[in-house]
TrEMBL record:
<dbReference type="InterPro" id="IPR050559">
    <property type="entry name" value="P-Pant_transferase_sf"/>
</dbReference>
<dbReference type="InterPro" id="IPR008278">
    <property type="entry name" value="4-PPantetheinyl_Trfase_dom"/>
</dbReference>
<dbReference type="InterPro" id="IPR004568">
    <property type="entry name" value="Ppantetheine-prot_Trfase_dom"/>
</dbReference>
<dbReference type="GO" id="GO:0008897">
    <property type="term" value="F:holo-[acyl-carrier-protein] synthase activity"/>
</dbReference>
<dbReference type="InterPro" id="IPR055066">
    <property type="entry name" value="AASDHPPT_N"/>
</dbReference>
<dbReference type="InterPro" id="IPR053581">
    <property type="entry name" value="P-Pant_Transferase_HetI-like"/>
</dbReference>
<dbReference type="GO" id="GO:0000287">
    <property type="term" value="F:magnesium ion binding"/>
</dbReference>
<dbReference type="Pfam" id="PF22624">
    <property type="entry name" value="AASDHPPT_N"/>
</dbReference>
<feature type="domain" description="4'-phosphopantetheinyl transferase N-terminal">
    <location>
        <begin position="36"/>
        <end position="122"/>
    </location>
</feature>
<keyword id="KW-0460">Magnesium</keyword>
<dbReference type="Pfam" id="PF01648">
    <property type="entry name" value="ACPS"/>
</dbReference>
<protein>
    <submittedName>
        <fullName>4'-phosphopantetheinyl transferase</fullName>
    </submittedName>
</protein>
<dbReference type="GO" id="GO:0019878">
    <property type="term" value="P:lysine biosynthetic process via aminoadipic acid"/>
</dbReference>
<comment type="similarity">
    <text>Belongs to the P-Pant transferase superfamily. Gsp/Sfp/HetI/AcpT family.</text>
</comment>
<keyword id="KW-0808">Transferase</keyword>
<dbReference type="GO" id="GO:0006633">
    <property type="term" value="P:fatty acid biosynthetic process"/>
</dbReference>
<dbReference type="InterPro" id="IPR037143">
    <property type="entry name" value="4-PPantetheinyl_Trfase_dom_sf"/>
</dbReference>
Amino acid sequence: MGSETNHLWLTAPTNLTLLPDEMHIWRIELARPAPELQALQTTLSSDEIARAQRFYFEQHRQRFITGRGILRTILGRYLGVEPQAVQFTYEPRGKPVLADTYSYSSLSFNLSHSQDLALCAVSSNRQVGIDIEHMRSVSDVEALAERFFAPREYAVVRSLPPEQQKQVFFRYWTCKEAYLKAIGVGLVQLEKVEISLTPEQPAKLMTDEKWSLIELLPASNYVGAVAVAGQNLHLKCWQY
């Protein structure tokens, strides 16, 4: 799986600094004990509470509250403010960004979750997008790859034995989605983003060489990817 297996998830230092050539990735476990969930809920804004209440399943509601509360806690640490003081505005497709109040910080971030795990990327002065996927069983990987992927990507998927197909399919998917989230575009553009990868080689974004693509293995049976504008970034991975 190349270099992406080597990232260690460490405990973050108390005084967090984010240098211009760094990117920080946070791994967040979303299943939290009830008292912590209640404490996190108190940090949310009224519109976030309203959004949480719209989820039909309790489990989805709890994951949203935990994810958003921990996101606020993490961003608050970089900004030096309480979690409830963090303010968001939303891009047209619903992607949260820091409100203008914090424009001086030049922080950019992106959050993604799948099942009980979330990943959050934090960067300075750079567009960033992140995606995590739980590698669920997919009934027809080849048909999906043919429909959503570029011809060369589909050819790679088709050439592999079944047990490798699924992992490569999800690697393509997370890489594409991370880049689309970074540039603020929806999944309709999936086949227009071309990625070069193989079971042995890490992913490279062919569509735009000014971007870095870094693959992550957050846990067994999960894959992740982060897309960030620019090159030669130092990656730090924190466990929340």
